[in-house]
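User: ABC transporter ATP-binding protein, Microbulbifer flavimaris:
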Amino acid sequence: MNSIISVSDLTKTYSGGFTALKNVNLDIHEGEIFALLGPNGAGKTTLISIICGIVNPSSGSVRADGHDVVRDYRMAREKIGLVPQELCTDSFESVLATVKFSRGLFGKAPDPGYIERLLRQLSLWEKRNSRIMALSGGMKRRLMIAKALSHEPKILFLDEPTAGVDVELRQDMWSMVRELRESGVTVILTTHYIEEAEEMADRVGVINHGRLVLVEDKNTLIKRMGNKELLLHLAEPLERLPESLADLSLELDESGQQMVYRFDIQSGETGIANLLRKLDRAEIEFRDLQTRESSLEDIFVGLVRGEQKENDRAHGAGE
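Assistant: Predicted structure for ABC transporter ATP-binding protein:
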């Protein structure tokens, strides 16, 4: 696959000594939806800001559609549309005027037909003459996307695109992002809503403490790192697990009414048959059972916790 964004050995250390990014390497494929996940302060915004030419790197390089974002800033920036998390625009301006103005900032010739199609796609055409102050929060979010797409970029960054919007509008925006991808736009989004990445992304990158912990196809990641849980709802509550079950990956919840058995979905032998035999010998009856597969959120939390433990061990060894 062609890489539309290439990040090589990227490091950013601020004047106060804080290192926000540490030797990041990343290739984003043309035409994909890429989700960048990480806790607050992980380095997501710094990485986006460097790619978009807002912040200069301390070392390393970034190319956007073949253009170096530092040496060839104007050409690189022309390929990129950025929707920031903050809703920052002139409240007294009309929707149509502000989108036209954004297009002009990139030196693009007026194209009323394109602007109309864009506003219609974003359900903003009926509001084209409205002042921005009169728009709802969701409409303002759509307007920010229209501004970012006004100069017809090949790459679109969405920083927390559905923050503060209701569930219905979130679904609409997911649909819109898919349409953008189908039209050839590469979409990179950061999000705190794990279900957003699970719903939309082709690939997922996890960043923590300035390091890119993992980059992988979403479905492959869930399949490779996911576990399944077998939930057994007991006919009678237990105070504790019998000794005969101590060697199993089994937990009893606080109520004593449910047991959880975890197993690797990649393993040829799940151990469920052995579990059921031991339950029968221990005369433990259950009235229902169900399985649950790990979600992307489960995997994300596990990766971040694992990274934190590694950092803690490293700091401890250095003391």
